[in-house]
Amino acid sequence: MRIEYDLKLGFKDVMIRPKRSTLKTRADVELERDFTFLHSKKIWKGVPVIAANMDTVGTFEMALALCKEKIITAIHKHYTVEEWSSFLEGKEASLYQFIAVSTGTGKADAAKLSQLLALFPQLSFVCIDVANGYSEHFVQFVKDARALYPDKIIIAGNVVTGEMVEELLLAGADMIKVGIGPGSVCTTRVKTGVGYPQLSAIIECADAAHGLGGQIISDGGVRCPEM
């Protein structure tokens, strides 16, 4: 066991210092960005905001609303293959660029993911999601997914330290979800005692990811609409 005495910060510990701007109104802010992903080499353009794959957030209805704004929805993993088929039937090709298929790491999860991607090869994003990504099994699942789906944009998480970000990127992930327990309704910290202040986690993990050419996603920590 090691106790860290360095200062660690969450979002509630800081504010953004204002500075002079040439913009006349917030409507002038350009939110779209271009990304090229580490392993899949795919290029994506849109607003870098993702609706979380929680069962009350990452829904098909949310995806239809957010894709109009070029925002990704990580669809929760509880939908059946039949429900996916019904949802995607007759949809425009552009929708596929703004939805991610979420999966756990069990055998049934892997089988369902394989079936979905075989039925809908247009799907670009795969989100491999566990509450705490610090296990050899999780890393191996990411490696296997990369080998099976070399052209997919793989999101993996959640972790909160630079060394684990590097390990997952080297295992085949394109983007790493960062955050354990910072969300307003997340109980991971209370139930397990595991976590890390979110802002410090972002700073550490972004540095590690960018050094390898990968990206991170800050997952959780926004507790009020103003943030």
Can you walk me through this structure?
Helices cover 31% and strands 17% of the residues. A seven-stranded parallel β-sheet has the order 3-4-5-6-7-8-9, covered by helices on one side. Strands 1-2 form a two-stranded antiparallel sheet. Helix 5 crosses helix 7. The chain is an alpha/beta fold.
Write the layout of secondary structure elements.
Elements: E1 33-36, E2 43-46, E3 50-51, H1 60-66, E4 72-75, H2 81-88, E5 99-103, H3 107-119, E6 125-129, H4 136-148, E7 153-159, H5 162-171, E8 175-178, H6 188-192, H7 198-212, E9 215-218
Parallel strand pairs: 3-4, 4-5, 5-6, 6-7, 7-8, 8-9
Antiparallel strand pairs: 1-2
Helix pairs in contact: 5-7
The average pLDDT is 93
How helical, in percent, are the residues?
A: 25-40%
The H/E string reads EEEHEHEHEHEHEHHE
**How many individual β-strands?**
9
**What structural category do the secondary elements indicate?**
alpha/beta
Largest sheet: 7 strands, parallel
Q: What are the segments in which pLDDT stays under 50 over at least 5 consecutive residues?
A: none
The number of helical runs is 7
Structural shape: globular
**CA distance, first residue to last residue:** 34 Å
Radius of gyration: 18 Å
Strand line-up in the sheet with most strands: 3-4-5-6-7-8-9
- Which strand-content bin applies to the residues? 15-25%
